[in-house]
Amino acid sequence: MNSPAQGPALNVVILAAGKGTRMRSNLPKVLHPVAHKPMVAHVIETAQQLGASATQLIFGHGAEQLKQRLASYPVNWIEQAEQLGTGHAVQQAIPAIADNDTVLILYGDVPLTRKETLERLLAAKGDSALALLTVTLPDPSGYGRIVRSTEGKVLGIVEHKDATPEQHTIQEVNTGIMAADGKALKRWLSALNNNNAQGEYYLTDIVAMAEQEGVEIATAQPSSIAEVEGANNRVQLAALERAYQQRQAEALMLNGATLMDPTRIDVRGSVEIGNDVVVDVNVIFEGKVVLGEGVVIEANCILRDCTLGNGVRIKANSIIEGAVLAEGAQAGPFARLRPGAELAKNAAVGNFVEMKKSYLGEGAKAGHLTYLGDTTVGAGANIGAGTITCNYDGVNKHQTIIGDHAFIGSNSSLVAPVTIGNYATTGAGSVITSAVEDKTLAVGRAKQRNIHGWKRPEKNS
Ligand code: UD1
Ligand code: CA
Do 291 and 273 form a contact (C-beta atoms < 8 A)? Predict the structure, then answer.
């Protein structure tokens, strides 16, 4: 029995061997991040989203750092020991290319190419052996120009340094991104030479070879210039970061979020949202963040790997990390929720409250200046201002358990391990070192003494 007809396998080749001298960095250029992720990782992920059956990473400089940082990505590592040009770089991948592959060539320092654009390039290619992603620039200086016949047929690419003054006026340029049939590509690559102004093996020379073989070279364009821009220095890197962030902001707004200023939000990970989320200025999202319907994030907050239920409000200047907040819960202003913090429905923490590995029950409140570590707080409990759970004895961490509707007086120190019962109360300023039963008042402080007739010291003459 025949298996169903399969299209050619997509084999992606990513060029990442350049040194990136102009970054002035110890980090290889392609590891410089956009939105906290190495540029080349964006490219690898795009290849994965396209359904690539294999991804070849052509590396040169900084092999150690690259292999360490990208260890989790399924790429085939191919070394280009000497950087003799883009054509030479792709030649290194020849052994990894099958005749019936469709080869897509991408660049490790061009991180913002959309999957949709590459799908358009592959669709434009169709049955042609070669397709180029081109873009028209107001200032094409420095780029390889697309040379077309009067009928508009692509004849070849001429590099800026090899171009005539007349060719310099061509504004349609080569982005470098292209798709080719494996068999033809290998044939063309093997025929490259370096007889040009830069003495390099130009990948772009395959275009004229294809044309001479009678190939009708297809072209496609990206939907924005940012998609095909690379970063050679940190000014360009910052521009890519802004372009990326603008894209994230637009996606959030189109998904139903109100952003008070779309230029003052940063997404360095993923944000999943319900309708009617409102985000004020200077908010940073990192890792995986999930926001329910109607969540409000006030100004100057950092949210990292957290899940917020419907109607949660994070007040200004709060840092929320590894936390889960149920419907209607609130935190801040100036709250710090660390990993393992969990707020049940309508629970609230106020200013200068830190929580770590702690659970605040339904409707429970810790309003001011409090540290809750390794603590479980029951429903409806009230944690007074200045309460500290003393969870660390210098060696080990210990648990504090506070019952439902307990009332912890201000400035209590709860020395763990310790249990406070349901409806129990601690007097303000208490140091609680042993269990407090349900409905009991515990007072653990020195008794007040009033000294009558006491005289203040007088200044020596
Ligand atoms: C290349 C194109 C040019 C295009 C421009 C778009 C060629 C000959 N020219 O020019 O038509 O307009 O990109 O930006 O292809 N690389 C390697 N190994 C090498 C050489 C380069 O991995 O031996 C990598 C670089 O790290 C870089 C990319 O390939 O990421 C492009 O190389 P670069 O030398 O910058 O090409 P351009 O001169 O910009
Ligand atoms: Ca370049």
Answer: yes
